[in-house]
Amino acid sequence: MHIHIVAGGPKEYLPSLQDFQEENVIWVGADRGVYYLLEQGIVPHEAFGDFDSVTEEELSFIQEKITHVHIFPSQKDETDLEIAISWALEQQPTNIKLFGVTGGRFDHTLANMQLLVKGIEQKVLMEILDRQNRICMKEAGEYSVQKEEEYPYLSFVPFTKEVTGIFLRGFKYSLTNASIQWGSTLCISNELVEDTGTYSFLSGIVIMVRSKD
User: Fold this and answer.
1) Can you tell me the distance from the alpha carbon of 113 to that of 207, in angstroms, rounded to the nearest whole number?
2) Of all helices (H) and strands (E), which one includes residue 168?
3) pLDDT (tens digit per residue) in 182-212
4) Which of the residues 18, 101, 156, 176 has an alpha carbon 20 to 30 A from that of 12?
5) Which residue ranges does the record assign to the Thiamin pyrophosphokinase thiamin-binding domain (predicted)?
6) Are residues 106 and 121 in the same domain?
7) How far apart, in whole angstroms, are the C-alpha atoms of residue 156 and residue 122?
8) How far is 165 from 175, CA to CA, in rounded Å?
9) 171 and 86 in one domain?
């Protein structure tokens, strides 16, 4: 089972959600992201939020179209997106994709990127997607990565204070037993030169970003 969550970030950052329709997908909306889904002809299974970013008319439309609408007070300890992610993780999915979580207010973007650690904690692959980037979080280990013409650039940003024992193979800029710390740009804007590359690190957590031109 795959869960796709759409939040209420600026609509111009959203890819076409129809491109991500597939079997065994449960769509979930968070706040204005619910309305974005309905605009693209997708009726989400669940809707979460205080809905302070929609009009009364839009909220009525949402409640007419969707059976499970969970309305929360605007004053709460979690964002609408975090509430939706918590519900999604309880379903024990194979992976979770997040849309509408970048752009606009930078505090929300930063917080949303940090929410990826919840996937690390529960061993569920979580990924952020927008028109320009695909973002995920990886803990220490060894991984393979395929060359993609659409996303030629790969960057690794330390999430923990230090990431050690980094090896990059099949990349334009290879690394052998390197380390990066907060504030380092050593692993920004790399490219694959082989069809398949590998990256590994011995300790720490990184945010991996694949970007278009």
Assistant:
1) 8
2) strand 162-169
3) 999 999 999 999 999 999 999 999 999 999 9
4) 156
5) 141-207
6) yes
7) 21
8) 9
9) no
